[in-house]
Predict the 3D structure of the following.
Amino acid sequence: MKEPDIPILIERDSNRPVETIVFNRPEKRNALSYRALLLLIAELERLEKDESVRILALRGVNHTFCSGLDLREATFGEPISGAELRSIPVGAIRQTPDDETIPRGKIMPRLVQEVLLRIKRIPQLTIGAAEGAACGGGAGILAASDYVLASEDFRAAFTEVKRGLCPALLFPFLTKKFPIAALQEAVFTARPFDAQRAKTTGLVQQIAPVDKFEKALEETIELFLTNSQVAQQEAKSLFATLTTPTLEEVDRAWEKHWRSWNSPAGKEGVLTFLEKRG
């Protein structure tokens, strides 16, 4: 099915210093495509310098947060030229020679990591509005957010081991958020866990009934807007120093992910998953 014209929607509140980024690929459960990742990185880069926005909410359409990386595109999408990659604001990618092409499966995970780092860096307080479900990179975005409000029917999962993949890509971010024992349970069982369990692990701070979710989100935004903007940004900076992985950690995680993705088990597992999805 053709991707929507705008896989990432940007909604700016005309009355408040609030912006919402909406994942808009309902037919793919809001999975992150290459184009969606580029748009997301560009907007996060812009927000770094935008002092008129204090709160950034992240959410998905159709009562689903984000199902992570678009594995079909990462597996079968056309390679990307070095010339195109050099325009992307990621240091390691900009070093690619113009005459080379890189598989999407190698670049898209790197862009997911870049998104998480930028969510950590921007001065705006970020709220993950987690409705429905979040898997893989989608749950990683929640882990990178400053505050997560989940609907009562929310579910999250890290299913990489079911697909023959090592869950290395998000590991530097998840270990800053989850207690190790809880993360081991989520990774080794690959079972979905509900909103209450997500709150116990620290992925989620607040749970709201489905029919009261919008009200709870508005109340949370209004609560944060009553705080001092300067003090709030300074507090975010303090937390960022504790919870942002080093670039060396991120690089090692990406390299381990790429080896896993190219392994026989990884290739077979991803293809089997995609065949089941149709």
